[in-house]
Amino acid sequence: MEKDFLKTRFVIIQLTLGIVFLIFIGRLFYLQILRGSVYKLKSETQAIKAQVVHPFRGNIYDKNGQLLVYNSPSFSLQLFTGSFRKDRLNFLAHILGMDTVNLYHLILQNIYNYRFGDIKLLRDLEFDIVQKINENLDYLPGVEIVVESKRVYNLTAKMSHIIGYLQEINQEERKNEPYYDIGDFIGKTGLEKFYETELRGQKGKRFVGVSGDGVRTAKFNEGRADQLVRNGDDLILTIDLNLQKKAEQLLEGKLGAIVAIDPNNGDILALVSKPDYDVTLLSGKDFPKNYSILESNNSKPLLNRAIQSRYPPGSTWKPLVALAGLERKVINEHTTFYCSGSFQFGDRTFACNGTHGYVNVRRALQVSCNVFFYQTALKLQFEGIAKWGSEFGFGQRTGIDLPFEITGILPDLAFLKRKYGDLKKVPSGSVVNYGIGQGEISVTPIQMACFTSAIANGGNFFRPRLVKAIRNNILNQIYPLPIESRKIQIDQKNLEFVINGMFDVVNTPGGTAFGISIPELTICGKTGTAQVREGKPPHSWFICFAPKENPKIAISVIVENAGYGAAVAAPIARELLKEFFGIKEPISPIDSTKISPD
Q1: Contacts of 130 by beta carbon, 8 Å cutoff, 6+ apart
Q2: Is the pLDDT of residue 336 over 80?
Q3: Bridge partner list, 79
Q4: Strand ranges (DSSP E) for 81-168?
Q5: What number of helices (H) and strands (E) belong to the chain?
Q6: CB of 151 closer than 8 Å to CB of 166
Q7: Cβ atoms of 512 and 596 closer than 8 Å
């Protein structure tokens, strides 16, 4: 009995030892054979490195869904200064087709700028070079090919001042932008800058093991710690691409700006500044050279004249003075002033563009009688003009969704005191000049478009916008942006008097823009010829909206140093209106005998 018990126990011990032995053998087989390569890599790994995965920037579409700006893959050469071996410099230079000394200096320059860490040595590499580097990564520790994206443009109109361009972030910008690393690209102008946060997306991270000699060995934790990349949101614009293209064509070869706006919501239908530039010139390897050429051009193609240039408004200011006079009750629809061709004030004589006899406010707008508005301005004084100028957004930014907009100048008493030190020193004729949009008054084309729009729609001042909706690419949802407006408290009858005067400008014989009338369309407009410094021709202005009832579009046009508003700016606006309303019938050229000197 005892023998059997001992024998059984011996067998159990043998079986237990055998099972344990088999387990050890199996585990060794798993570690050495099945997972040997993995653990070999892990054993060689001496550091965990986080690699940034760059998102694709959001696309840009026009109002009808036509793709304007998108992305394509771009390959950059990235170098980790802590791992790169100098003895591989000749080999890398050979692959890149560069002189070794030049490559060395490029690396030193980048190390000086970047100090430490990853540096983007070269961008937008040719694919054959990318292949050669990838084939030799084991011999190039610290060298990596990084997939980024570059902007691709599908533009039938240039739109350079709308779209803007990207460029590498500088040290000053990085101080307030913790999202960015050195070498990242950021929007510098246009919508690319204004909507940078929406367009850029969110970077991802990929963690990898790195051996002692700088060679990537394996994913860390099989990628479970990686952070997913989130591509940027898309912008859907308000721009009417056909109208934008036409506006650019009409202003080609000139200096000036055009802004067309929907008076019902503030949507920008076209925005042009000339001269402009091809945005692709500032999106590739030759950026420094091309930017330098554009910056040194005396005609300033990088300047967005639509929002960044101040001009005296000339006679396009007269509807504002008329409205101010009517609202403050210093004139009414029956008030008349006699125009003998000039107006004497103190020891100065202020000229008119004709001899108009007795004129009321409607007639004064039609023929652009300076004398009527000289006298109205005297009744309003500085405060009255400044108050109503401010109501219509002058002296302020409109809030358009573009960077670097300026305010223009609306001289009030505080401005005059700052300029002259004492209000008694303000030249006595200043307020007279303000009546016809001269003197210190200056405006931007976008301000004039918003002003015209507010007259057209009955006193609603809309914040102008270029983007009407944003598409979230994660949720695949389109989110309309809010329409922002404020109501100007103004008597509708007074607006009607001014609108009728602007109607007569274009549609009644004797109107300063009678030559551009279109039988199929009721246009309300105002010409302007803004005097500039001596020796230079005046600026040509025209503002308008159409149709008179239920307006669909408001336009401001300025052409620098081009002469009369009726001769240059007004015909440009006429052609834009034809394009917008689909009017195909040919219209005879402007009769020079109908051109007004205003």
Answers
A1: 75, 145
A2: yes
A3: 119, 143
A4: 118-122, 143-153, 166-168
A5: 20, 23
A6: yes
A7: yes
DSSP annotation of 202: B
Rounded CA-CA distance 254/562 in Å is: 9
Give which of 196, 191, 189, 219 is closest to 206, Cα–Cα: 219
Rounded Cα gap, residues 54 and 230, in angstroms: 9
Residues 279-325 pLDDT 10s: 999 987 788 899 999 999 999 999 999 999 999 999 999 999 999 99
Q: Strands 539-546 and 524-530, how do they pair? A: antiparallel
Q: Taking Cα atoms as reference points, which of 396, 389, 393, 435 lies closest to residue 412?
A: 389
Distance between CA atoms of residues 128 and 511, nearest Å: 67
Dist. CA 371–CA 340, nearest whole Å: 8
| Residue 249 confidence (pLDDT) | 98
In a 13 Å sphere around the CA of 317, the CA atoms on its Cβ side amount to: 33
3-state secondary structure of 37: helix
Residue for token digits 């390959």? 75
**Per-residue tokens: 476:** 């695949």
- Cβ count within 10 A of residue 226: 18
CA distance 482 to 380: 37
Identify the structural domains of the chain with CATH numbers, from first to last: 49-125+135-237 (3.90.1310.10), 241-277+303-594 (3.40.710.10)
CA 334 to chain centre: 45
Structure tokens at 34: 């099945």
Model's pTM, two decimal places? 0.87
pLDDT per position as a tens digit, 179-217: 888 788 999 999 999 999 999 999 887 776 666 555 555
For residue 444 the two structure tokens come to 């931007």
Annotate 296-359 with DSSP letters as a single string: H-TT-TTS-HHHH--B--GGGGHHHHHHHHHHTTSS-TT--EEESSEEEETTEEEE-SS--EEE
Looking at per-residue pLDDT, the higher value among 454 and 216 belongs to 454
The rounded Cα 148 to chain-centroid distance in angstroms is 23
**What distance in Å separates the CA atoms of residue 397 and residue 404, rounded to the nearest whole number?**
10
**What would the two tokens of residue 2 be?**
């005892």
